[in-house]
Amino acid sequence: MPDRSSDREQWGSRVGFILATVGSAVGLGNVWRFPTIVARSGGGAFLLLYMGIVLLIGIPLMMAELAMGRRSGRGVVGAFRSLQPGRGWWLGGIVAAAAVFFILSYYSVIAGWTLVYTSFGAAGDLQGLDVEGLEQLFAQVTGGTLLPVAGQILFIVLSSGVVYFGVTDGIERWGKILIPSIVILLLLLLGRVLFLPGAIDGVMWFLRPDFGRLSLGVALEAMGQVFFSFSLGMGAVLTYGSYLSRDDDISRNSFVITLADVAIAVLAGLVVISALHAFDIDPEVGFGLVFVALPAVFNTLAFSPFWNAVFFVSLAFAAMTSLISFLEVLNAIFMEEFGWSRRRVVPMVGTAIILVGLPSALAQGALAQVILFDRDIMDAVDALTSSVILPLSGLITVLYVGWVWGAGAAAREIAGDRVDSPFIHVWIFIVRYVAPAALVYIFLAGIAT
Ligand code: TRP
Q1: How would residue 1 be classed by pLDDT, with cut points 50, 70 and 90?
Q2: Quick one: CA dihedral 319, 350, 338, 96, positive or negative?
Q3: Does the pLDDT value for residue 139 go beyond 70?
Q4: Fewest CB within 10 angstroms: 96, 167, 284, 376, which?
């Protein structure tokens, strides 16, 4: 049995752990992906389906990662190695770590753009720009050299500054500040946007169930979104679980964390959709929504610099809490595997991410000519990691929990002596059969596109 080292850091409070993990889940994806998918795929009907998939697959997978982390008391490589020693399973941890490494490289660049836009917004530089002007500005910013690189470096330095102080004094403290701030800022925006003429219609349109649009394809899309939104398959939830105390209830915490993520996604969705609906703009997935369409709407309001700044600050916060969790995945690995101190590992990992991020930062500028698989460098890295490596690593994780470490052992970690409850039997069935089948599908669909 793996020995949890007694000097491992631990969360200071249950709330702190929950907010930090919610922080990992709430990211840019909540703002630019979720609202569009909901609007396109059946509104309220899709939300019901999404909630079903959250319960059926999202929560069980989150429980599996938390159990792996807490039982082993290790980061993602050490967890795979110690729960079932021998036989190369630790490579599963390497796959997850590789996914995190590459996701960090471009996620930090986009996060850097949100910082640039926060300063533009606050300085009033976005004022008076219409959609066309904003499009030009966006092309200029992302196609430049100084701004994308400086934004990325600043973002990594700030996030590294948080993780430098460790689990309780860094990650937990900032989760407690940033997550409530995101909710307050979004509520503020929603309060303003709802007064726009036509906004309430937008809300109705967003939530109205259109069962005719539901299909197997939509269900699979929902599954993919649940998987990404909860930051599964990258060892982030696992690593945060490794700082969890024995007394904490894994299943209850998983419910609270996932529901909070869904609630914040719906809140962001209400802001985005009602704002766009008031101006008859079709919501589209992607950067255009965040950096062009929404600032154009906020520009029509009185005090527009304020509203733009509020919006981009909330985005920057959302990106930061996710980035912090990704950095911690790598930090935990280096601290354990090499016995290095946090003070040494954090600057090292930060520097490495800045370096691998440079090609993504310059993907629309100096390196725009470089095309891989029909995509610029940033899109290529994104496609490879989100659609291929991440589902693969998620699949390895469930197979490992269900069959290698063993669903029975995992269930004992989750439920103690209450393993005979119907809830746990259902969980075991999902982890062994349902989740692997779903992930095989997501993986194959990812390779096909
Ligand atoms: N869940 C976060 C988000 O919605 C972060 C995240 C998870 C992510 N998986 C990802 C970001 C894959 C990019 C790619 O943004």
Answers
A1: very low
A2: positive
A3: yes
A4: 284
Structure tokens given for 318? 């959302």
Token representation of residue 340: 């290095």
Q: Is 386 in the pocket of ligand 1 (CB under 6 A)?
A: yes
- C-alpha 209 to ligand 1 mean position (Å): 27
Instruction: Quote the percentage of the chain above a pLDDT of 70.
Output: 98
**Are the CB atoms for 330 and 29 separated by under 8 Å?**
no
Average pLDDT of the chain is 91
User: Does residue 426 surpass a pLDDT of 60?
Assistant: yes
Domains of the chain, earliest start first: 14-387 (1.10.4160.10)
Q: Could you identify the atom of ligand 1 that is nearest to the CA of residue 390?
A: 12
Residue 103 CB–ligand 1 contact under 6 Å: yes
Per-residue pLDDT averaged across 5-18, rounded? 89
pLDDT of residue 6: 61
Candidates 272, 292, 283; CA nearest to 40 is: 283
**Is the distance from the beta carbon of residue 107 to the nearest atom of ligand 1 less than 6 Å?**
yes
Closest CA to 288 of 136, 118, 126: 136
Closest CA to ligand 1's atom 12: 386
Among 26, 33, 37, 38, smallest CA distance to 314 is for 26
Point out which residues pair with 209 in neighbouring strands: 43
**Ligand 1 and 29: CB distance under 6 A:** yes
387 lines ligand 1 (CB under 6 A): no
**In the predicted structure, residue 298 carries a pLDDT above the cut 70:** yes
Ligand 1 atom showing the smallest separation from residue 33 Cα: 4
- Per residue in 170-222, pLDDT tens? 999 999 999 999 999 999 999 999 999 888 888 888 888 888 888 888 888 88
**In 3D, which of 290, 324, 325, 327 has the Cα closest to residue 308?**
290
pLDDT, tens digit (0-9, with 9 covering 90-100), for 336-355: 999 999 999 999 999 999 99
Residue to probe by mutation, ligand 1, list 61, 155, 182, 228, most atoms within 8 Å of CB = 228
Hey, how many other C-beta atoms are within 10 angstroms of the C-beta on 419?
Answer: 16
Q: What share of the chain is helix, strand, coil (3-state, %, to 5)?
A: 80, 0, 20
Closest CA to 227 of 443, 447, 73, 31: 443
